[in-house]
């Protein structure tokens, strides 16, 4: 098998393709959060939490680390000490519901395998906490709907961690497209692909349909599904999709490998998307408007993203700062909790992608016929209109 690379490693790569993965332990430097910052419990201490989320608290302004939830107590205690948390701020999954009695915890960040998102989100809402949940928000439409219902019943906020809604290069692309300066959107092409490794525990569950909800489509493809929607600024009314999967490859016993789809939007714009767990890595998009082309390559990494303009008088690279995307995302959630910011990435946004994943897989199962997707969903807020680029 060719050299494999995990999703986390892929999107940590720098511009030159050199790995920029963060260390698995984090600095003991305390967070620089402001007084009155929202306390978060991080639920799940895997690669993403260790490499990105816990370090991000060091630069958060309005969010602070208040607790850790893990099935590995020794690991959690070590990390708690590094982050100046007491032993009482460490919870196991079995005692998760005790967070209801900790007023320091106002929100939880669910960083668990997809099939656990619904259970722990619902339990967090029952404990009276707000929820920031990694994407995809669940493994089924039914579970996504259950999460939204639980948030409403608890009168708490549910935000899905679509970090590209808060990332400067993607925001600037949205803003420029909305301005009309490049003419109307015609075509979006997204390619989100990598090699998977079943010996990596973080990949093993992603190669299990019941645990991931869609293999590469749920893991990488969701960036293209959501990206096409926020770049065009519309919701697709129809999808067609196809797959090419080698069932003799032990990785693909229950999930598809290469999936390609086509969205049709109300304006007539088209989006072509692809994802795979058995190709060389890329996370990129191209946006073709009537009078220009915009490219994000890379477009969805944790750092080192680029935005370039072609076929237009202002062509060239758009220089924007690299930011800590996770810090900004958590700060936005904190501002939502405090009533200072609109909920840009609500549960309904995650539900729309869950429905689209299902529609894509339904089309694949039937050999590629069109599936109607005009469910009437409309974004409550356009990120381009309410989230500052920097």
Outline:
This protein has 390 residues and is an alpha/beta fold. The chain has twelve helices and 15 strands. It has two domains: 7-163, NAD(P)-binding Rossmann-like Domain (Rossmann fold); 164-320 and 347-386, Dihydrodipicolinate Reductase, domain 2 (2-Layer Sandwich), CATH 3.30.360.10.
* Low-confidence regions: 14-31
Q: How many helix segments?
A: 12
CATH topology of the largest domain: Dihydrodipicolinate Reductase, domain 2
Distance between termini?
Answer: 41 Å
Strand order of the largest sheet: 14-13-12-11-7-10-9-8-15
CATH-defined superfamily of the largest domain: Dihydrodipicolinate Reductase, domain 2
Question: Can you name the CATH architecture of the largest domain?
Answer: 2-Layer Sandwich
* Overall 3D shape: globular
Taken together, the total number of domains comes to 2
CATH class of the largest domain: Alpha Beta
Rounded mean pLDDT is 93
Number of strands: 15
Strand content: 15-25%
**Fraction of residues in helix:** 25-40%
- Radius of gyration, whole Å: 20 Å
In N-to-C order, the SSE pattern is HEHEHEEHEHEHEHHHEEEEEEEHHEH
List keywords for this structure.
alpha/beta, Rossmann fold, Dihydrodipicolinate Reductase, domain 2, nine-stranded mixed β-sheet, 15 strands, 31% helix
Would you give an account of this structure?
It is a single chain. Helices cover 31% and strands 21% of the residues. Helix 4 runs parallel beside helix 5 (141-154) and helix 5 (141-154) packs antiparallel against helix 11 (347-365). It folds into two domains: 7-163, 3-Layer(aba) Sandwich (Rossmann fold); 164-320 and 347-386, Dihydrodipicolinate Reductase, domain 2. The longest helix has 19 residues, at 347-365. It is globular, with a radius of gyration of 20 Å. The strands form two sheets. A nine-stranded mixed β-sheet has the order 14-13-12-11-7-10-9-8-15. Strands 3-2-1-4-5-6 form a six-stranded parallel β-sheet, sandwiched between helices. With 390 residues, the chain is α/β, with parallel strands linked by helices. The protein has twelve helices and 15 strands. Residues 14-31 have low confidence and may be disordered. It has helices at 7-10, 47-56, 73-82, 117-126, 141-154, 168-179, 201-204, 209-212, 216-232, 325-337, 347-365, 383-386, and strands at residues 38-43, 63-69, 90-91, 107-110, 130-133, 158-160, 185-195, 238-244, 258-264, 270-276, 278-289, 292-296, 308-310, 316-317, 371-372.
